[in-house]
Amino acid sequence: MVGSNRDITDRVEAEEALRASESRLEEAQRTAQVGDWEYNVATEELTWSAEVYRIYGTSPAEFRPTGEGFYQLAHSEDRERIRALVAEGLRRGGQFSYEHRIILPNGDVRWVTQVNGPAGKGADNAAMRRGTVQDITVRNLAARELRESEERYRSLIEDQSEFVSRYTPDGTLTFVNAAYSAQHGMTPDEMVGMNIFDFLPHDEQARVRRYVAELGADTPFDRIENRVVMPDGTLRWQEWTDRAFVDDTGQVNEIKAFGRDVTERKENEEIMRRGEARLVEAQQIGNVGSWTQNFLGDKQIETHWSGQLCRIYGIEPGDVPQDFSAFLEFIHPDEREDMIQAWQDANDGGESYDIEHRIIRPDGDVRHAHTKARFITEDTKGIRRCVGATSDITARKEMEGALRDREQMLSGIFETASVGLTLTDPDGRFLQTNLAYQTMLGRSAEELLNMTFWDVTHESDQDLQLEKYSELVAGDSDSYQINKRYIHKNGSVIWVNLNVSRLTDDAGNMIGDAKGNRGAASTVPKNGNGRPAYRRRSA
Fold this sequence. Notes:
The protein is of the alpha+beta class and 539 residues long. The protein is built from 16 helices and 20 strands. It has helices at 9-32, 50-56, 67-73, 79-92, 137-159, 178-183, 188-191, 202-213, 263-286, 307-313, 324-328, 336-350, 394-416, 435-441, 445-449, 462-474, and strands at 34-40, 45-48, 96-103, 109-118, 128-135, 163-167, 173-176, 221-229, 235-246, 252-261, 288-297, 300-305, 352-360, 366-378, 383-392, 420-424, 430-433, 479-487, 493-504, 510-522. The protein has a 5-stranded antiparallel β-sheet, sandwiched between helices. A 5-stranded antiparallel β-sheet has the order 7-6-10-9-8, sandwiched between helices. Strand 18 (479-487) and strand 19 (493-504) form a beta hairpin. The longest helix is centred in the first third of the chain and has 24 residues, at 9-32. The radius of gyration is 55 Å and the shape is rod-shaped. The N and C termini lie far apart (179 Å). The relative contact order is 0.04.
């Protein structure tokens, strides 16, 4: 047996190195989803790497690549465009690239990018071409989603009725939506590049500049309300919510702002503020305080008192009683049961109550109050509440007491006076007489209430009485004094010294007169039927 041996170590190692290199290349292509190919233009022979087969969803056993086969794998809507691109690229020589869709055997559609170039140096017009194909489906989908997202975002921003803007820290606008620019009577393009501070009245600029300067990494979000000057010179209110975007160093790059016109709200707030101020003033002038009780369920009560009500009760706003039992501590002990009963009757269906009561303030001072309240049920929210108003009537009560005392004193004087006193209306009808006058005429109080002073005046004195009384009624005099005669019930004549004073209301209208009578009895002639001889005359 004869044998020969040749050392092929170098060749084997080279082959192993080549296989390892090809393995690494294949792995790299798989990772990057990039395959390479080689194409003979003259013979239309096409060679694919393993990754190209994977990209196209096939294998060497299933598909033998050719130039025409390449076109058949392309999406039908892209084929003619690809043929024209390749033909023009080959005519010009050099390298070119393009993107297109391919259809996999399972029907999936993928996006790829092709790079086509000459093979070898100086072979611009050579028959051999080399290139790569990369699967860019994910990238394209992401780009499409990004475009769609941007379109949706832009559509959303442009369709917003609220204002949207972006500006740099110095106030320069980089974007505005249509709603914002329309309020200022401009287009978005006209406003971009302008400065937000130019739209502010002079007295607002310093405050808004401080606000913008404080936006940053520590305070990325904030809100502000400020006035702006419109093109016609009028002022309007805007509310803005701002977000600052910062870089890695913490510096603000841009500020995005969302705003709206709040002029109507601010005007309503001002009207309400003025109304509340007038209400407070009215409550102070009228010494009337308001209150509200909200019944929240589970016996929870939320109580609110106005400032004037706190002053009436002599407490601070923070000491307002939050339940009924605590409130009763302010009510005079003699009147607590009446208050409880009134409150319960209203709560059980009476809906409202109206009661006068006394208050014992923390300093011991006792005040008189008049409280009106009403229970309300808000069906939409299911909240039951009681609203009311309490007025301090201490001054009125003290005046009423003083008036009663005075009336009692005057009544005592009237009744016990030794002279005859009367009170009559403008027609002369007796409204009140005292005992001395009744005794003087021999008539009871009831009899005199059905008579006039003309009925008891002597006929010969009625003209004089009428003259003086007419002047009094006309307002030409406030009082008069005469000597006159009365007729006693028994027919005797009584001479009196009469003092009459005119009584008027606040408007100066006469409401009656008061008469003081001093006199002595005498007899007068009688006519044939035994009655006093005098004329009766109506006043």
